[in-house]
């Protein structure tokens, strides 16, 4: 008997979640956790919640009024990403004070209280080569996949101001 493939990356795990949600009507995170365990994947509720958010999964009602998770079609994700990029451009123009680069990392400065807003915009825009953001009160740390990606993002963000 062949061994089952067990996703070792976030992308692979999210692909498995999408496959499950396309085939089955699962109405709770607990139910999805259980289903993932059946596939050999142990995931915390917090991680699952982040996965569903990143995948833009939503709860919809079926004909019988029961709710279940649904993952959007690629075209829907693309439209949402475009909207998020427009929003990021507006927020960057409004709150981005400065951008400093340290190799593959960017330090973004904002007015007090605005860093979370800008980091959220970066996360939702699903920019290529952005691995993640950490936000404080007035500072966002952006980690990119390479020095070159950081340079390009720095230039793009500065062009928005």
Protein traits:
single chain, 161 residues, alpha+beta, Arc Repressor Mutant, subunit A, Gyrase A, domain 2, 2 domains, 4-stranded antiparallel β-sheet, two-stranded antiparallel ribbon, 6 helices, 6 strands, elongated
How would you classify the helix and strand content by structural class?
alpha+beta
Overall pLDDT confidence: 89
Quickly count the helices.
6
Q: Look at the structure and give the CATH class of the largest domain.
A: Alpha Beta
**What Rg is obtained from the alpha carbons, in whole angstroms?**
18 Å
Order of helices and strands: HHHEEHEEHEEH
- Low-pLDDT residue spans: none
Strand adjacency order, main sheet: 3-4-6-5
Count of individual domains: 2
Oligomer: single chain
Gap from first CA to last CA: 58 Å
Fold-level CATH name of the largest domain: Gyrase A, domain 2
Pathway: Amino-acid biosynthesis; L-arginine biosynthesis [regulation]
Family: Belongs to the ArgR family.
Domain Arginine repressor DNA-binding: 10-75
Protein name: Arginine repressor
Task: Summarize the structure in words.
With about 160 residues, this protein is α+β, with helices and mostly antiparallel strands. The protein folds into 2 domains: about 10-70, Winged helix-like DNA-binding domain superfamily/Winged helix DNA-binding domain (Arc Repressor Mutant, subunit A, Orthogonal Bundle); about 75-160, Gyrase A, domain 2 (2-Layer Sandwich). Helix content is about 50%, strand content about 20%. The protein is elongated, with a radius of gyration of 18 Å. It is found in: Cytoplasm. It holds the Pfam family Arg_repressor.
